[in-house]
Amino acid sequence: MSETQPTVTFRGRGFVPATKRWAPWLAFVLIIAAWEFASDTGLLPSLFMPSPHEVLLALYSLLVDGKLFVHIGASLQRIVGGWLLGSFAGLCFGFAMGIFVLARSVGLPVVAALFPIPKIALLPLFILWFGIGEPSKIATIALGVFFPTVVSTYSAVDNVPRNLIRMAQSFGLSTPAIVWKVILPGAMPGILSGFRISSSIALILVVAAEMIGTQVGIGAFVLAAGNLMQTDQLVAGVVLLSLLGLTISWLLGIAEKTLLRWR
Amino acid sequence: MLSRRLLLAAFAALLLSPFAAPFAASAQPKDKVAISALPFISTAPVFIAKERGYFDAEGIDLDIKIFNAAQAVAVAVASNDADFGITAFTGGFFNLAGKGALKVVAAQSREEPGYNFVAYVASKKAYDAGFRSPKDFAGKSVAITTVGSSFHYNLGMLADKYGFKLDAVQMKPVQSIPNMMAALSGGQVDATILPANNALKLEADGAGKIIGWVHEHTPWQLGVLFASSKIVKEKRPLVERFVWAYQKGLADYAAAFLAKDSQGNRMIGEKALALMPVLEKWVQPKPSIDTVKIAANYMDPQGRLLVKNIYDQLAWYQAQGLVDKSVKAGDFLDLSFVKGHLDLPKK
Amino acid sequence: MQVVLDGVGYAYGDLPVLDGVSFSVAEGETAALIGPSGCGKSTLLNLVGGLLQQQVGRVSTPGAPPAGCLNPLTFVFQDFALLPWRSVAGNVALALEHHGLGRKEREGRINEVLTLCGLADFADALPRQLSGGMRQRVGIARAIAVKPAVLLMDEPLSALDAQTRELLMEDLVAIWARERTTTLYVTHNLSEAVRLADKVVVLSRRPGRIKRVVEVPVPVFERHKLDHAAALQALQDELWGLIKTEAQVADREVQDV
What we know:
The complex is a heterotrimer.
Chain A: H1 22-40, H2 52-64, H3 67-99, H4 101-114, H5 123-130, H6 134-158, H7 162-170, H8 175-209, H9 218-227, H10 231-259
Chain B: H1 2-26, E1 31-37, H2 44-51, H3 54-57, E2 60-66, H4 70-78, E3 84-88, H5 91-98, E4 102-107, E5 118-123, H6 124-128, E6 141-144, H7 150-162, E7 170-173, H8 177-185, E8 191-195, H9 196-205, E9 208-213, H10 214-217, E10 223-228, H11 229-234, H12 236-257, H13 270-282, H14 289-295, H15 307-319, H16 329-332
Parallel strand pairs in B: 1-2, 1-3, 6-7, 6-8
Antiparallel strand pairs in B: 3-10, 4-10, 5-8, 5-9
Helix pairs in contact in B: 2-12, 2-13, 4-5, 12-13
Chain C: E1 3-12, E2 15-25, E3 30-34, H1 41-49, E4 56-60, E5 73-76, H2 88-94, H3 103-116, H4 132-145, E6 150-154, H5 162-179, E7 182-186, H6 190-196, E8 199-203, E9 210-215, H7 229-252
Parallel strand pairs in C: 3-7, 3-8, 5-6, 6-7
Antiparallel strand pairs in C: 1-2, 1-4, 8-9
């Protein structure tokens, strides 16, 4: 038996939930390089897809004539305005539903009925109610943001550990104090992850909202580029939207790190 | 009933097939050709030529693919889903043509003096406040479909002709003609620019006032028949035959709908009535003789283009930054299929 | 302040959990409440603490609370119930903030109880940074910061490991030596009961009825002495004899509540 004393072999390789930091950048660079190559050699005709450097040129010319900031500014105003409005209303309703039995009983079925409505379909109605100016655009975004915020806030409040609330009651805290000191911070992780969803919804809806009655804004720019078959500008606009989305999620990441340091 | 009729037809086809086969074999095999088009009266020459057999006579088996936006018509040709297309010029059209995918071969509609087609419409409120002339568009808000649409260009021509700044017009893109009408009747804009039937409807409803017609101010080449660059390059004789058939359709259309009496009024007579079934078959929404009387727009009976205007249009779109500077009109115009084009630019 | 229960009963819907429970805890006395699981110990504590609506019988608290008492009936929870986003000092502050104390007095009280519970160095730490024992010390510090008349302790040591439990029991005895607060102490651990309580109230299986009230003959501060070890062990065995059969039945029961 002496010759059969094998050393134990390592068999726990792989399946590690880790990521390599450089990998996504490399993939990005490779994809863009392949894209540029395909465009330059004519494999990908510019009629169907602009090349990366054409997209960069389109972005550059936007930057040079100053329209870039006009478009971003107009869109940001609508996104931020609509998002703030929708989030504030959503937080109020979500909290009410999480705390009061009556609000929950009424709110849950109403939200369930209205949530799935595609807000874009309501745009013509908003135009009748609010005109073709800014209010209808902000209302579209606000409504799109409102429902997911209600749902995420409600479930975040609902998930605040009951024992913390009972503890606060046992020390004689008033209801407003419990909401402010226990429920709000306890629901904050859920609310913030709800913000991640609602901010990307706001970004999607700004394109729809800018279909009507405006010439400025990234959404209007993308739509006009589509109508004009200016594919380089179209892709440039899409790149801008994606950068805007990345910026927003980066900011939310910072907010999470600051507000949820205790986790 | 229907199924019985179908059965009968199938039975008849079966019976006739032995006789039909040698008959078909004796004829030339037809070229299959597809055209993308809008279901509008402006496509009528194609519908007429198809229904009256002018394409068949040229040995062309034509498939008409109906789209709902000018853009889609041009894209279908650029992507080789159709060999020909017939629609209005737009900024998007020039950008596609600039990529070398399309060649313009003949004319479709144009704004011709004496023929009402597209109107400037003021809202009731703006009209009452003194907005009576297309010269006064500066400072007004105007609903258009999209940036780079023909409505946008109409305003651009007015601005050039009457010396106001286009920037002074607040353009509101609202995507569709129904939205433009709604924006005007809802009082959200001071004016809009609409095809005759829509303009007259708004005026009849009391929501707006027609303050002028485009042909009175800025005649221009609205639409064209175009072909994919591929077919022009590879099957030139087929394109020639196609244009001949199209011209026959144009001639019938002009005779039926564009004739005028001695006082200069449009005459809609026997020939027009004879063509109504063709229009009823193809045009959406289904037209009546009254709507046709209003909406039948001018087309050159021989398909000749206002060539200089096309150069002007392109230059205007390029000046607005809506079309790439590298696009050249000469590259997408093929003037060899129709003789005697009008208003050629001086070299 | 005393705690007096008179014929207290309670039912969750159709399920009776307490029936005719009467006993009292004298001023400064510690009563341990033991019984098989599901006998309504926690329900009883919540009734006394006012977290459950009384149904049958009466719970009363004769006598005046001590001077400076902010929250007469104060809980210490099994799962600590600390706010994870507040520091140790912040968690203690939560119990004081709404009482309109001056900033100075509040900070004074916080420092006092943190020192008393051996937390002075951890004032700014977050709960997640602390061991289970330290967390429960925060829970205890928070409770005594309000100078309670009655401490209601709901299995305060059962989430801790055996060694930590020993340490905390010593701390509790030391704190009681100072404060002499009336205490109702729910536990299923008999050695805890015998070690800490002046008297042990034994409840029967559901619906919980009082089976016996046993006085512990040795003063709390002397129980660690070896002389008493045999007597205390005998008492613990006696208590186990009282609840063993029922604990076995409870263990085999299928839970559907």
